[in-house]
Amino acid sequence: MSISTKTRQGALAGLAAALLAATAQAETIRWGAPRDIVSLDPYSYGDSYTINFLNHIYEGLVRYNRDLEIEPALATAWEIVSPTTWRFTLRKGVKFHDGSDFTAEDVLASLERVSDETSPLKGNLPAYQSATVVDDNTIDIELSGAYPLLLNDLTNIHIFDKGWLVANNAEKPTDVSAGVEGYATFNTNGTGPFQLESRTPEAQTVLAVNNNWWDEPAHNLTRIEFQPISSAATRVAALLSGEVDFVDSAPVQDLPRLAQAENLTILERTDLRTVMLGFNRREELVGGGENPMNDLRVRQAMQLAVDMDLIQDKVMRGKSRNAGALVAPSIPGYSEDLDTVAPFDPEKARALLEEAGYGDGFAFDFVCTNESYVNEEQFCQAIASMWSRVGLEPKLDIGPTAKQTPKRANGKADIYTIGWATLPMLDTYSILVQMLHSKEGNSGVFNWGGWSYPELDKLTQSAAVELDREARLDMENKALRIAKDEIIMMPLHQQPMAWAVSRDFSDFPQFPDNKPRMWYVTK
């Protein structure tokens, strides 16, 4: 063997050893998730889970910090230059993952894309009218009127690279519900702390650290391996065996066992998200025939027939919080007087159905997913059983989110599950404008049932431009009262939030909005 050959082999061996050492030192988190994200396009569907995951790749002009307070991100400063115009000064020196410079043109293209008429996320910017580039580092945003919650909204509006959108014919948004896909469905180019390495839908999505991130990292992670594991039992087994380091949806029935594991730490609290049922309020049921749910007495009967205490005790293992209001106690606009849970009264439920002319019951489609909310399949089965006992005929339809979302969003469900945490706004106005308001323009994007209450709409519109906080919250509270009295939505509970994480991690903050933020995690 020649000296040159020996030298080459020695160099290769040294390189291999170095690579092995680098791999060993790499701080990877293996994330066992209850479900996959729906797309790599954050504008493709108003799914908080997907948008949060993509916040590791994409960023907004502002963001919530560790204490859920708004702080600068891609914008460094802002000012109100007229009652309807906000001016944002942008951060200099920021690079997209492909090396392109970040400028005001990127912000303009992103705002136009998310507010497009075809955008499923247009409701996240309800007051947006237009934007004007002042210079490379300054942009003006024009609103429909005085509006106090713009910064809250902008925390969830991710910024794309305009050149990348144009080059890939991706200037228009995609839409999961409508089956509209595009380049941004499968590819990314953000400015965030991590960048996409690979993705196999329903199997694994891998992110690598962005070493050129503009911010000073609080984390020390080099890699995120996101793996959807829909089976709760499999997820728990993977956690206990060390195959995954973290699950953001630890099954409530397994918490006692997980708490005894020496290698794990359990983080528990109640989620901000209120899980509720929505009603078809169109003239006909999905299967045809007059829609009984347009009669308030029928909605009252359906609510009285559900024993929420039993669901809390048996299905949620005592970990949920029964809800009488559509927002959680910590959300501005909440009031305790609205948070009264309807009593379980099957006899009165039967009497109301009889009075409404449906003493013999009626059949309807009840659409649930099997992984969107904690123990959703089980509580849907329980509710269907309770309705059956008062003479109703629910046709329970349970399936994955990807299959059920088009049904719910396109009016193909008579009753459906939905959860709302008022994200990113963290204010009651979020649910008022996006879910309870009549479907028109940027409002009522999640009004999947097709209802309309002019008085509620008026209160919502007034709250949108009211700068006095107490006056605005009073309007929001009155609108919530209408929603409660009319049972526009039927609140169930604030679901339990349980994370389980390996003790190899020294800092792993849990956030009340149930959003893991890996850029704060250290191992």
Automatic annotation (TrEMBL):
Annotated InterPro entries: Peptide/Ni-bd, SBP_5, SBP_5_dom
Tell me where on the tree of life, at the top rank, the source sits: Bacteria
| GO MF, one annotated term | peptide transmembrane transporter activity
GO terms in the biological process aspect are: peptide transport
Which keywords accompany this UniProt record? Signal, Transport
* Similarity field: Belongs to the bacterial solute-binding protein 5 family.
Name of protein: Peptide/nickel transport system substrate-binding protein
- Tell me which species this is from: Sedimentitalea nanhaiensis
